[in-house]
Amino acid sequence: MYAEVILPVPVGRSFTYAIPAVCADIIKVGCKVSVPFGRNKLHTGIVLSLHENPCSNAFEIKEIRELLGSEPVVGEKDLRLWEWIADYYMCALGDVMKAALPSAVKQTGNVKVKKELHVKLADRLFDKTALNETFESLQKTPRRYALLRKLVEMTSFDTAIKLNNRNLIRQVSRAQLLHESNTSAAVLLGLKAKGIIEIYEYEVLPQQNSTGSIVDMLPLSDSQQKALDEIVNIHSHKSVCLLHGVTSSGKTEIYIRLILQMAAQGKQVLYLLPEIALTTQITQRLRRVFGDEMGVYHSRCTDAERLEIWQKQRSDKPFQLIVGVRSSIFLPQKNLGLVIVDEEHETSYKQQEPAPRYNARDTAIMLAHIHNARVLLGSATPSIETYHNTTLGKYGYVKLDQRYGGIMLPQIDVVDVQDLVRRKIMNQPFSPMLEQEMQQALEHGEQVILFQNRRGYAPVVECVQCGWIPTCEYCDVSLTYHHEDQKLHCHYCGNSFPIPAKCPNCGGHDLRSYGFGTEKIEVEVHKRFPKARTARLDLDTTRSRGSYSKIIDDFAQGKTDILIGTQMVSKGLDFGNVRTVGILDADTMLNRPDFRCHERAYQMMAQVAGRAGRRNRRGHVILQTRRADNPLISQVVNGDYISMFQEQMLQRQQFYYPPFYRLIYVWLKHRNEVVVNKSALMMTRLMQQAFGGGVLGPDRPAVARINMLHIRKIALKVAASPRVSPTEVRKKLRTIAEQVTSVPGLHSTMIFFDVDPL
Ligand code: ADP
Ligand code: ZN
Ligand code: ZN
Known about the structure:
Blueprint: E1 2-6, E2 15-18, E3 32-37, E4 41-51, E5 66-68, H1 76-88, H2 93-100, H3 103-106, E6 115-121, H4 128-137, H5 142-155, H6 157-162, H7 174-181, H8 185-193, E7 197-203, H9 222-235, E8 240-245, H10 251-264, E9 268-272, H11 280-290, E10 294-297, H12 303-314, E11 321-324, E12 336-342, H13 360-370, E13 374-379, H14 384-391, E14 396-400, E15 411-416, H15 417-422, H16 432-443, E16 447-451, E17 460-463, E18 480-482, E19 487-489, E20 496-498, E21 511-514, H17 518-528, E22 534-537, H18 547-556, E23 562-565, E24 578-583, H19 587-590, H20 597-609, E25 620-625, H21 631-637, H22 641-654, E26 661-670, H23 673-691, E27 695-699, E28 705-706, E29 709-719, H24 726-741, E30 750-755
Parallel strand pairs: 8-13, 8-14, 9-11, 9-12, 10-11, 12-13, 15-25, 16-23, 16-24, 22-23, 24-25
Antiparallel strand pairs: 1-2, 1-4, 3-4, 3-5, 6-7, 17-21, 18-19, 19-20, 26-29, 26-30, 27-29, 28-29
Helix pairs in contact: 1-2, 1-13, 5-7, 5-8, 9-10, 20-21, 23-24
This protein binds adenosine-5'-diphosphate (ADP) and zinc ion (2 copies).
């Protein structure tokens, strides 16, 4: 007998090992094993399959050293998803394993689960009459009576009876119950002796405990109810549905209903969100409904936290609801009913580095397919691909075009910066209109969001005499000045450098900085509004754990007046008191050399605008641009998604881009520019022989060297027609890459693929 074993190495698929006789009867697919690999180092791997025919290659087949536990740690369906990812996104199965398993599962040895004592009502009391009779029988023992009352309240037992849904019963720990009811353990034991309650062991996640005990449901508005009904209807015959709901239309409440419906059927829900939207705001709202039936999985979870959620999901009592970031698609699933992908257009669903370079939205659709579950994609600004799929009828479509509470979408005013500068009345970076609006908001105790999609202080530093621009030592990119540490930073490799005392080119002493990053905007705000309390939300202010949440909570609670940020301020955040949103410079978003540039610019601007005027009254957005006549600007102003979509579709068709063509980028990297050039040329030639005209390149990308590695890029466009088998394309590409790296001198070129790049 032999086993195919997945190892956490970035090459190949799986590796064949012989199964020693001692474990031949107990080894199963998904089990963890320890095997010798390479220079007889031991690695931990996962059994992918068992078989009797070793591939007849020349290698000597080694034996599994040890079976680490007889129970599988990965389910068969999870393995199917891993294989799909490795195949579709063209990476090693070991890369997927590394991304999927919490590090503690990858390591050898077993892990302990923490347990605590919980209390519940006896099952026979799940009946109105039985419960009432029990209460009556306790009339003469008031302390027992009171304790049972408290337990009913804390477990939401009566609500669960009313809705005839046991899944709504909440977990209550013995300690919590005794504390809140202020009674002694003796009273509790008295109830236990009478068979009214049960005490049992419960596996807990310490940091995920909650106190909420009421199912806190808001009545849906008519349009929310209608959208909900439509989604349920579509899901009865289609697996994927898009909820296209404008900002602040109350999509979350609809998700909550769908999750409850799934819970009532004993099914689980995976709710994906971009990292920043997963702050306390949304988790608190969901916590009020789902209490400790909900697990939260974000990228800042510690290894121990990851492991606990992982184990809980493999136990008999998994969380009904997991709210998480893209990597939560790898959590084990028992009985998955629904995957919600909120803000489905978000680019952060795509992992850029390292492999697997997967898109969690698209992978979620495959995950749901494997489990026969449904998918709901939600967005106010859907991705072109998703909307296209609804027009083809592949996905269902539900529209919600009213904000909750009848609040109007914000008024968007365009300010032509070009004109103001010409007339010398623009006091950078704020137009008079924006400055006046900010003034008024502050006077009325209302809030302002300023959006500038550049961090740091000044994006351009230049020698006044000769025009020399400081660049990174390790990357081919100019440096950004940061005021905080008074250094020049590289936004690609993260290194920082001191400001040169004089220009290394001409010896001049006048180095000037131009342009505005978020840091400088904050300084300018302080100059004009010294009393305003400001906060900045960008990569630099959110490096530590908890810093996102603090900045967002402070703003939500009115502790700050003006929030300045990069695109981070646009992501699904809900603030009640924002009167004004300033988009300081739309042009940087419109100028990027990328076929998705306009789609992204629309999404970013519409989303950030959507933070204005959500609860009380109509908000106001001021959009500053030098390109006021660009059609995209009026599409944003009118909230005209459809025009943006149609225009982009025309362009995509004309220039052979997705969704008409599938796109795969081939990236080549090497420290030596000569080597990378040679490899790229050979790769391109072979690709052209295999695929013909759809091959573009090799290109020097805009940043052609990062961290000392020279980079080349080749694009492959394949018609998205059924005549060309994507599997064949991927197979050929892999073979070609192997051909290139088998050439002496080129073997150390790093070649990797980015499928469906963003
Ligand atoms: P979206 O995600 O569509 O932008 P949210 O779900 O954040 O919108 O809802 C916007 C605001 O409206 C939130 O403050 C939310 O609490 C409120 N809201 C939505 N639906 C309801 C409802 N049915 N009852 C009361 N408040 C609601
Ligand atoms: Zn100079
Ligand atoms: Zn650098």
